[in-house]
TrEMBL record, chain A:
It comes from Schleiferilactobacillus harbinensis. Its main location: cytoplasm. Pfam families: ACP (PF06857). This is Citrate lyase acyl carrier protein. The modification O-(phosphoribosyl dephospho-coenzyme A)serine is found at residue 14.
UniProtKB/TrEMBL annotation, chain B:
Its EC number is 6.2.1.22. One of its GO terms (molecular function) is ATP binding. PANTHER family: [CITRATE [PRO-3S]-LYASE] LIGASE. It holds the Pfam family Citrate_ly_lig. This is [Citrate [pro-3S]-lyase] ligase. It comes from the Bacteria. Acetylation of prosthetic group (2-(5''-phosphoribosyl)-3'-dephosphocoenzyme-A) of the gamma subunit of citrate lyase. Keywords: ATP-binding, Ligase, Lyase, Nucleotide-binding.
């Protein structure tokens, strides 16, 4: 699926993560992660984001993630919200949930 | 947990409390014009106590000040987060902030990238497309690595034979000339019209490329004093930021080694800008100051063209204009006059 526009979900408050998705024509899913715990959990955070976007069949995207200590379920929820906004979908994507 | 409320600065009590809060955090002395330019202002409240504030104007975050609560950074993050959400809702996926150096780290922690800094101010950006994307996605810049590339930044309000003279000179002395037209829409001629007139006026020069300057070249974000009347020290530090952004990001990414500017006998702001460019750009980028084109003893300036439009003396500046700009003004004369009547400033830039 093609991302239509840049979209943001989440906040910068403690235990949350702010995800910004924007269109890319090639290069796969490229994640730029800011996190105080990147050295311990960076790979896991990126995996959750990548898996969630793959669930939406998004092949190429630029992702900016500013993590403030979010749990996996929060990361997934924020990524889904950002993806739906970026794809301009209003119906929940049940199969991804 | 503090909550966010809208602040309506038209209410005198609200405005006073807000100004006092900013002053207590070392932010003061802005003009009414600057305050009037914001789109929305938010306050962060702990009960009835104001503990933080921030505002958005276009795609710029402004007037950010917070008290530290129990958790360091929490109030700051909440304010920035709310402002970012509002900018996204308003369709601004790319945002900038101009702030004091001590806040650089705080913005860095919430995903902002530093574009340029001086002793008194820092310019940062967040969101997409960022400066790297903006620069590398300009069509045709891929071949610039091995060539002599020069750049010119112009507002071209409107494009005159003086602009053309400057570009011709650069085009003769370099392999490629990248012309950046100021994107901020605060001039008599709209940014689309200026862009179109520059393109039309340079169409025959094959090694010249015309691009919009985006948020990065003499934009309202990097250099508000270009558009608002300001004091000399303000102009000086804003132009320093603009010059450093060009030197640190634009020039290396696009392999630009020279920048051409017109000598500036008339506009005070632009004269300071040229002076600062001369200090900041070398040795990475060579600054070349070209004497202005004169026509029958008069220096060709866009300022004079705008004046002639306002005073219905168009014939006096016909020799200043390339046929494309001349034709455009003839065709849109009534509308231009209407803009001036509505209060569009023609004496600035």
């Amino acid at each position: 699926m093609e991302i239509k526009k840049t979209a943001l979900a989440g906040t910068l408050e403690s235990s949350d993560i702010q995800i910004t998705l924007s269109p890319a024509t090639a290069g796969g899913i490229q994640i730029d992660l800011d996190s105080a715990v990147a050295s311990q959990y960076g790979d896991e955070i990126k995996k959750v984001i990548t898996d969630t976007l793959t669930g939406f069949k998004i092949d190429n995207a630029l992702v900016k993630a500013v993590d403030k200590g979010a749990l996996d379920c929060v990361i997934k929820a924020r990524t889904i919200a950002a993806a739906q906004r970026a794809l301009e979908q209003t119906e929940p994507a049940w199969e991804v949930l | 947990m503090a909550d966010i409320r809208d602040l309506h600065l038209r209410v005198p009590g609200v405005r006073q409390a807000w100004l006092a809060f900013l002053a207590a955090h070392g932010l003061s002395g802005f003009s009414d014009a600057e305050i009037a330019s914001v789109d929305s202002v938010i306050g962060l409240y702990d009960g009835d106590r104001l503990v933080g504030t921030g505002a958005i104007a276009g795609n710029v975050l402004k007037f950010i000040a917070v008290d530290e609560g129990d958790t360091p950074g929490a109030n700051f993050n909440q304010v920035v987060s709310e402002l970012q959400s509002r900018l996204m809702l308003a369709g601004h996926s790319h945002m900038m902030v101009f702030t004091k150096p001590q806040y650089e780290a705080s913005f860095g922690h919430v995903g902002f990238t530093t574009l340029a800094k001086t002793d008194v101010g820092v310019l940062l950006e967040a969101g997409m497309p960022g400066i790297k994307q903006y620069l590398t996605q300009l069509p045709g810049v891929g071949d610039q690595a091995a060539k002599h590339v020069a750049a010119i930044v112009m507002n071209a309000n409107p494009f005159t034979r003086g602009h053309r003279y400057l570009v011709e000179k650069a085009a003769a002395e370099n392999d490629i000339v990248d012309v950046f037209v100021v994107s901020t829409d605060r001039s008599l001629f709209t940014s689309a019209e200026r862009m179109q007139l520059v393109q039309a006026g340079l169409a025959d020069l094959k090694n010249v490329r015309v691009y919009p300057g985006g948020d990065y070249m003499v934009s309202y974000a990097t250099f508000p004093a270009y558009f608002l009347k300001s004091g000399d020290d303000v102009i000086r530090y804003q132009t320093t930021l603009d010059a450093r952004l060009f030197r640190n990001w634009v020039a290396p990414t696009l392999h630009i080694t020279k920048r051409y500017v017109g000598e500036e006998p008339k506009s005070h702001t632009t004269a300071i800008y040229n002076d600062v460019l001369a200090q900041e750009l070398p040795p990475a980028v060579q600054l070349i100051v070209v004497p202005r084109l004169t026509e029958a003893g008069t220096v060709v300036t866009a300022t004079q063209v705008r004046q002639a439009i306002a005073e219905a003396q168009l014939a006096t500046v016909k020799d200043f204009l390339p046929p494309t700009t001349w034709q455009f003004i003839q065709d849109h004369y009534a509308e231009l006059l209407k803009r001036i009547e509505k209060g569009q400033n023609i004496r600035g830039n």
